[in-house]
Amino acid sequence: KRLILIGPPGSGKGTQSPIIKDEYCLCHLATGDMLRAAVAAKTPLGIKAKEAMDKGELVSDDLVVGIIDEAMKKPSCQKGFILDGFPRTVVQAQKLDEMLDKQGVKVDKVLNFAIDDAILEERITGRWIHPSSGRTYHTKFAPPKAPGVDDVTGEPLIQRKDDTAAVLKSRLDAFHKQTAPVIDYYSKKGVVANLHAEKPPKEVTVEVEKVLSQ
Ligand code: AP5
Ligand code: ZN
Question: Which of 63, 68, 128, 134 minimizes the number of CB atoms within 10 Å of its CB?
Fold first, then answer.
């Protein structure tokens, strides 16, 4: 399947992605994760992206379209994919359509993680991440077995630099202004499925599975 996950920061995209991936064996491309890896490695791309990311603003369309274009060439992405955090502007959505048109394929479903802004600050400020696996925890909603430590590897967990209440405000602003129109773009194509993203993670997974089995 060819899937897109859209939702505001903290809506649960990264939490549901690995579950979908394990079940459908797709390629999982998360532009935020790819950009953070580039920033950590201080690549030219990372150096260009860092300032916008730290402020909670979007990185330029050209940069993200470039990384997606490159990543989609992987053989594992030919039969299907999950895009988490892309497209995030209408321009990015149009570019993706151009890429897919060339292959004669289409997006099957856009999962819209619909949720009220008021819930997101607690989710974002309580998040802890295991960087190498992408496993995500939450101090209250999904605590690790031992505080600050990954359940599987025992390695330390980290917090994201942009996971503060102040930066969240800009990220939400970018979401409403630049990304909400992308949901309309796909609604017109009739491929959007709305999820109740405020429910507990397992219940959201059930909703996702229902949509994907259709
Ligand atoms: P990105 O990494 O994509 O961040 P984001 O969109 O802000 O989304 P998050 O990763 O914060 O949220 P999530 O939905 O994955 O939440 P999660 O599942 O972890 O982007 C970061 C930056 O990169 C952007 O600001 C921008 O600068 C740049 N960028 C990326 N893509 C770009 C693009 N295409 N164009 C331009 N710039 C781009 O959950 C959050 C927490 O809540 C966790 O602790 C989790 O355990 C908990 N949780 C999850 N689900 C539930 C639940 N159902 N109930 C209770 N708790 C839950
Ligand atoms: Zn994420």
Answer: 134
> pLDDT band for position 69 (50/70/90)?
very high
- The mean of the pLDDT values for the chain is 95
Q: Which strand (E) or helix (H) includes residue 112? A: strand 109-114
Judging by beta carbons within 10 Å of its beta carbon (0-12, 13-18, 19+), is residue 118 exposed, middle or buried?
exposed
Residues 28-56 have a mean pLDDT of 96
In this predicted structure, the answer to whether residue 144 has a pLDDT above a threshold of 90 is: yes
Residue from 16, 17, 28, 31 to probe ligand 1 pocket by mutation (most atoms less than 8 Å from CB): 31
Task: Report how far residue 43's alpha carbon sits from residue 131's, in angstroms, rounded to the nearest whole number.
Answer: 18
